Amino acid sequence: MWPFDAIDWVMLLVPFAYITVLVGSLFVFLGIYRRRKAVKAASLEPWFPPHLQRNVYLSLLHMENPKVPDSILKAALLRRATEDIHRIVQIRNAKQALQVLLQRGSVGDDLWQRFQRAEKEIEEELRDVVTEANAFAPNWGQTIFQSASEMAQNTHIRDRLTEILATAPSEKEWWEKRKATIQSDFMKELDDEKSPRREGHVAKGSDDDAVIVEAGGPADKAGKGKKKKGKH
Q1: Contact 84, 122 (CB under 8 A)
Q2: Which portions of the chain have biased composition (kind: Basic and acidic residues) (predicted)?
Q3: Cα four-point dihedral sign 125, 127, 130, 134
Q4: Is the model more confident about 224 or about 185?
């Protein structure tokens, strides 16, 4: 009886051992795959350049001697939030176009992974800014990004105005050339309109001269002779 029971147990244990080895191999494979994927994602180029405003704020925050005043720290945090607003706008503008290109196969998965990592980083950055703002003043985290958005808009308007003023001399030079060309074309058209009138005036004078010549010709003299004979 015992040998048969041992054989039955061995027959039952073999499938369980096979399943255990299979599941263990699967977990090992998944672990290696995730590790390689994480290493590959870490080696990808970041979507955004280094966050200079965040680094400046953290450097000021951890200065001990001399200690940085809260007013300067708040200003640095606000500048950090303003840069975050710029990055959020870039993420939103690029997401839809990138999804379309990914569906068409125009871009690879590496670019999409970079974009997804940038989205996660910006989400963590926003939470960190809100936490830091609330540490300075209660409920400031709810309004800091509104103030940062206004600052970003003002910066955009100022940059746009600077670009317009920078192109003003070239625009003025182009307009002066254009105005000179238009004036030259206009004067040429006026000269072309006057030329036919002068030719018509000369032609009319020629016809009058022809009539005068014909009036003093032989036929006219013959007519005058006939009139004299009639008088006699």
Answers
A1: yes
A2: 186-207
A3: negative
A4: 185
